C-alpha cells in the first residue's frame, strides 16, 4: 500500500542553508535508496502571512504493507547515514498518512 511518511524538523538557528544543502544533497538521497521509499518532496512551512516559520517538511512516498516496520528499518539504517549537526535533534516528528480516495490530477 502507498503511504506518505511526513517528517517535520528544524535546523539549528542560523544554519538553515547548511541544513537545506545536507537534506537535498545527502539525506533525501540516502532515504530514497531504502527499500520501500519511492520519492521525497520537501517544503518550508509558512505562516498565514507567508513568513517562514523555521519548520522544514519532507514528504516521502513509501510503498509498504507495514508502516511501523518501514519506520523501524529507517531507524535501523540511521547509523550508516551521514548525519549533520545542523539539525535541531529535538525537532523531528514522524507521521504516516494513507490515501482516502482516488488521486485527482
From TrEMBL:
Domain of life: Bacteria
Protein name listed in UniProt: Ethyl tert-butyl ether degradation EthD
Organism in which the protein naturally occurs: Sphingobium chlorophenolicum
Species classification: Bacteria, Pseudomonadati, Pseudomonadota, Alphaproteobacteria, Sphingomonadales
Amino acid at each position: 500500500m502507498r503511504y506518505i511518511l511526513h517528517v517535520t524538523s528544524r535546523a539549528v538557528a542560523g544554519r538553515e542553508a547548511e541544513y537545506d544543502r545536507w537534506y537535498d544533497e545527502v539525506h533525501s538521497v540516502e532515504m530514497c535508496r531504502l527499500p520501500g521509499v519511492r520519492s521525497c518532496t520537501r517544503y518550508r512551512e509558512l505562516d498565514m502571512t507567508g513568513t517562514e516559520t523555521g519548520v522544514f517538511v519532507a514528504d516521502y512516498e513509501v510503498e509498504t504493507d507495514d508502516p511501523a516496520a518501514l519506520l523501524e528499518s529507517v531507524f535501523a539504517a540511521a547509523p550508516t547515514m551521514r548525519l549533520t549537526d545542523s539539525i535541531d535533534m529535538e525537532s523531528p516528528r514522524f507521521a504516516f498518512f494513507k490515501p482516502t480516495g482516488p488521486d485527482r490530477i
